[in-house]
Each structure stands twice: as structure tokens, then as C-alpha cells.
Known about the structure:
- With 71 residues, the protein is mainly β.
- The protein has one domain: N-terminal domain of TfIIb, CATH 2.20.25.10.
- It contains one helix and four strands; from the N terminus they run αββββ.
- The chain has one helix at residues 4-9; strands spanning 19-22, 25-28, 34-38, 41-42.
- Strand 3 and strand 4 form a beta hairpin.
- It is globular.
- The protein starts with a helix and ends in a 29-residue tail after the last strand.
- Zinc ion binds next to loops.
Amino acid sequence: MIEERLLKILRCPLGKSKLYEEGDWLICEQCGVKYPIRDGIPVMLIHEAKLPEGISKVEELPCQQGKNKSE
Ligand SMILES: [Zn+2]
């Protein structure tokens, strides 16, 4: 379990959205990306995260549309 206090300040690094906890995962309310919780510590790294079904890369996420076009 993640401390509620911590959960409140954590944001998805992609869209700065709130996250909710589900089992061993922290899931972004907006883009649905799942970040693993390892030994009680959320791993907020996109290369460690699990993308939602139907999404094969980060650029396809709704929260990334219209962003980072120059990269
Ligand atoms: Zn997100």
C-alpha cells in the first residue's frame, strides 16, 4: 500500500494527472499507464511502466497528442 499522503502528491510524469492504486500498480487516471510499485515504492519511470491495451508506444497516448512534436 502506498501512503495516501504520497499518493496525493504523485502525478503521472506524462500528463501530470492523478494516479490511483490498484494492487501492485499505480494507474494514471488520464492515460491509463500503469506504474509498478516495488517494495512499496512507486516506480514512476515510463520505460518501467505498462502501457494500456492497444497502445504500443508512449507517443500514442492521448495525453501525448499534440505534445513533443519537435522531438
Ligand atoms: Zn498519464
